[in-house]
From TrEMBL:
Subcellular location: Cell membrane
Disease resistance R13L4/SHOC-2-like LRR domain residues: 131-264
Annotated Gene Ontology cellular component terms: plasma membrane
Protein's UniProt name: (wild Malaysian banana) hypothetical protein
Amino acid sequence: MAPRPLSSVAVLLLVAVAAAWTGGADGCPASDRAALLAFRSALSEPYLGIFSSWKGKNCCSRWYGVSCDPTTGRVADITLRGESEDPILARAGHSGGLMSGRISPEICLLDRLTTLILADWKQISGPIPPCITSLPLLRILDLVGNRLSGSLPADIGRLSRLTVLNVADNQISGTIPSSLVALSSLMHLELSNNQISGTIPTDFGNLRKLSRALLGRNRISGVIPVSVGHMTRLADLDLAENRISGDIPASLGFMPVLSSLYLDSNRLTGHIPAALLASRGLSILNLSRNAIEGEIPDVFGYRSYYTALDLSYNQLRGSVPKTLVTAAYVGHLDLSHNHLCGAIPAGSPFDHLEAASFANNDCLCGGPLPACR
Ligand SMILES: *[C@@H]1O[C@H](CO)[C@@H](O)[C@H](O)[C@H]1NC(C)=O
């Protein structure tokens, strides 16, 4: 059957829809285009030449990394990743690119922006423009893997729609703004590997939607707020390699979905809460390199499933918990560099562990260590 010619009404409709999709015949508004060009002129990316596609009137069409809201024709999304699977980067023969320069405050003129991803370019420096907090629709702010400095904007809490805040692997300093806990939509918070100091806000637990909080490798001090234990969606908490002191709040043992907890290399003291070790769902617990004392609570059971349990380099006393043999699974176990004593229980998981897991204690004996006498 021969293709039927489209009726003129259908053609007109198609033209109208196409025009709406591209934001009209002129493309994006001149003000959005000007803001993008100002943003681009503060950056330099000489290797891949991605900005060479930023030409012509219509910034909503074929400008690499830019996309617009189809109904308003306004710029909604800037996604530029230095290390990506993107075929354009792959064809250029680069596993990753370099971009230097700064983030121009003119980005804040793109007041319909929902996503700003400027990730893994290694060399972008300068501050996060404080005016970024005036972008009312911003949902994703991902600036990981650059050399950004300065502090997080004090009024970051204004970004009421923000779901992802990732500034990990930069040189951000200053403290965690107290307004951060007002980010009621926040699901992912990644501040790891910066120079952030000060304390974790006491009401951090107000971040009810948060599922990952990665704050490791900073200079954070003070205690772990008790409110953290009231976070019902938090699955991954990383506070490793900071200067956190005080006790581990017992409330952490009652978190419904906590699955990984990294508190290693801090200044924690006190005892390990029994509820924490017994908590089901927790599969990675690293408390290594603190000053935790007392006995290891003997509270493991058939619901215990640990891919990694590292309690090494503390001041733990007493014996190796006998209930560990009842655990459903214990993969990696490290109890070394403590003051444990007595016989290592027989059976799984102890039959697959190496002597290094028990090294440098006071008087442990039995397989995999030499027999007790
Ligand atoms: C736990 O943390 C210590 C110190 O930060 C680190 O050396 C060790 O590899 C970690 N253990 C696991 C199982 O990740």
